[in-house]
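Complex 212.
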Amino acid sequence: MDVLLLGASGRIGHRVANELLDRGHDVTGVSRSGEVEGVEDASFVAVAGDATDPDDVAQLAAGHDAVASTLGPGEDTSPDVLVNMMEAVIEGLRRASVDRLVWTGGAGGLSVGPDTRLVETDDFPDEWEPLARAAIDAYDVLADDDDLEWTYLAPAALIEPGERTGEYRTAAGELVADEDGESYISMEDFAVALADELEEANAVHTYLGTGY
Ligand SMILES: NC(=O)c1ccc[n+]([C@@H]2O[C@H](COP(=O)([O-])OP(=O)(O)OC[C@H]3O[C@@H](n4cnc5c(N)ncnc54)[C@H](OP(=O)(O)O)[C@@H]3O)[C@@H](O)[C@H]2O)c1
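Predicted structure with NAP bound:
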C-alpha cells in the first residue's frame, strides 16, 4: 500500500512509519519541516507540508492508497488547531479522490460508563482537558462526513514509548482498560493497531478505543 502519513515526525508518527515500512508498505511522511528522525528505509520519503492547508493536503495525498494521521498540535499551537487540521484533511482527501483515512485521535471522548465519557470523569487531569475537548470537536467534524472511509483510532488513556508486543484489544466507542481499571498501550503497539486497521479496515466509520 502507498500510504501518506501526516505527522510522521511525531512521537507516535515515527513509530507508525516504521511499523508500516516493516510490513512492506511505501510511506510518504509529512511534517512542517520536512524532517523525520528515526525512520530510515528505501521505501520512505519525508516531505514538508502544512496539514491545516487543504491545497497542501490534496497535493500530498494525490496518488496514495490511504492517508494516516498522527497529527498533533505540539507545544507551540493551540489544541483547537486539531479542528482546522481535520477540516483541511477531509477537504484535501476529497480533492485528491483518496477515500481511506485512519486518524489518531484522543481517548477523552470514549465511554467509561453509562452516559459518561473519559474527559467527564473526576480523575481526568485538568491540564489535558483542552486537548481532549479539541480532539472531540475534531471527531465531531469527521463523524459528519459520509464520503470518506474513516476510522478514528484512539490510544488508551495513557500511551508511552514501550515494547512492541503485537497484542492489543479494541472496543468501539469505549475506553479499553484491564481488570484493574488501568488503560494503557505502548506507542509501538498503538502503531500495530493503526497498521492493522489500515490493512484490514475492520472499523470503518468507528471511534475505536485501543489498549491491553
Ligand atoms: N491518550 C490519548 O488520548 C492521547 C495520548 C497521546 C497522544 N494522543 C494524540 O495522538 C496524536 C499524536 O500525538 P504525539 O504525541 O505523537 O504528537 P507529537 O509528537 O506532538 O507529533 C505531532 C506531529 O504533527 C506534526 N504537525 C504539527 N502541526 C502540523 C502541521 N500544521 N502540518 C503538518 N504536520 C504538523 C508534527 O510535526 P512538525 O512539528 O515537525 O510539523 C508532528 O509530526 C495527537 O493528536 C494527540 O492528541 C492522544
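The domain at 2-211 is CATH 3.40.50.720 (Rossmann fold).
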